[in-house]
From TrEMBL:
Residues 188-307 form the Ketopantoate reductase C-terminal domain. InterPro entries: 6-PGluconate_DH-like_C_sf, 6PGD_dom2, ApbA, KPA_reductase, KPR-Related, KPR_N, NAD(P)-bd_dom_sf. It is an enzyme of class 1 (oxidoreductase). This is 2-dehydropantoate 2-reductase. It catalyses: (R)-pantoate + NADP(+) = 2-dehydropantoate + NADPH + H(+). Pathway: Cofactor biosynthesis; (R)-pantothenate biosynthesis; (R)-pantoate from 3-methyl-2-oxobutanoate: step 2/2. Residues 6-159 form the Ketopantoate reductase N-terminal domain. Pfam families: ApbA, ApbA_C. It comes from the Bacteria. Belongs to the ketopantoate reductase family. Catalyzes the NADPH-dependent reduction of ketopantoate into pantoic acid. The keyword Magnesium does not apply. One of its GO terms (biological process) is pantothenate biosynthetic process.
Length: 317
């Protein structure tokens, strides 16, 4: 097994980090998957990443079906529409090839804990290596600012069934060593994904409801209470699935007090948020175990209402 061609689904902030990290080494063997007017726009505009312009090599899913690695970096709200392309590139279903390259490994870099489950329903678990991202970035149009891309944040991966480094993980490790990406194998990938999921819910969502930067958790006992209540519910649900997670670090945050995480960035830009991936999934997982999560449920409906406000639903004048 060797990774020589990488297909990228999604040209947002995570996609930008992938382009920044891999294009210099892969050249045209890093392809961005798109069709129609979107493909034309991406070819014409490329991406601006930390002030540097990158031209994109754009292919259709059919053209990208010989990729050795498929990186899914779409928004959660776009995963359903992207599923047909995922099947074309890496398609397997119940062990039978649907289409695509049988050697294709799939990394889903969406936030949350269920994107791999949704993809596996279409192509099976065999090609999927669980992964998650830890970067902070900001996107405006085709301009992406990635904070400290060469720092400790990056891409983390592992096998959901074993703490051992499988052949697929070893191949990924060898490939990533040829890129600028900061990556690492982790033996406890599911615990890591759940921890990041709960951290997103506890740190990301209260500031989105309040419309304020990260510093609110240090400067307001009420904002901190809200954050800790969401954390408590997330940890309780994780425990019900056999994943014990300790308290999140408090009192000292890695980023500036003005930092606005992704949900608040989406509301600021009047984009749909990923609240279904956060509280929506937590509520679903909780219901399956008979657990009540009232703070998460309330947060879900507040952010849904804020999305409606951005859409103009409450413009009564």
């Amino acid at each position: 097994m060797e990774i020589r061609k990488v297909a990228l689904l999604g040209a947002g902030a995570i996609g930008g980090y992938m382009v920044w990290g891999m294009q210099n080494s892969l050249k045209d063997n890093l392809v961005t998957v798109a069709e129609g007017t979107r493909a034309e726009r991406l070819r014409k505009e490329g991406m601006e990443i930390n002030g540097e312009h990158y031209d994109l090599h754009v292919q259709s899913a059919a053209e990208a079906s010989d990729a050795d690695l498929l990186i899914v970096a779409v928004k959660y709200t776009g995963l359903k529409d992207a599923m047909a392309d995922i099947v074309r590139i890496a398609g397997r279903n119940s062990g039978h090839t649907v289409s695509g390259n049988e050697r294709t490994t799939v990394l889903s870099l969406l936030n949350g804990i269920d994107s791999e489950e949704l993809i596996a329903e279409q192509i099976g678990w065999e090609p999927i290596v669980n992964a998650y991202m830890t970067i902070v970035s900001h996107r405006t149009g085709n301009e992406i600012e990635i904070y400290h891309p060469e720092g400790p944040d990056g891409l983390w991966y592992g096998d959901r069934n074993t703490p051992e480094k499988t052949e697929a993980c070893e191949v990924l490790e060898q490939f990533f060593a040829t890129t600028r990406l900061h990556t690492g194998f982790v033996p406890d990938i599911l615990k890591r994904q759940w921890t990041k999921f709960i951290r997103n819910i506890a740190y990301n969502l209260p500031q989105a409801v309040l419309g304020t930067g990260l510093g609110a958790y240090s400067d307001s006992e009420h904002a901190l209470w809200y954050s800790m209540k969401l954390e408590e519910e997330g940890r309780k649900v994780a425990a019900a699935y056999g994943i014990e997670i300790g308290p999140l670090p408090r009192g000292s945050y890695r980023y500036t007090p003005a930092t606005r995480y992704s949900t608040l960035q989406d509301l600021d830009a009047k984009r749909p948020t990923e609240i279904d991936m956060f509280c929506g999934v937590l509520m679903k997982k909780a219901a399956e175990k008979g657990i009540q999560v009232p703070a998460a449920e309330c947060t879900y409906h507040i952010i849904k209402a804020l999305e409606e406000k951005n859409e103009g639903r409450f413009d009564y004048e």
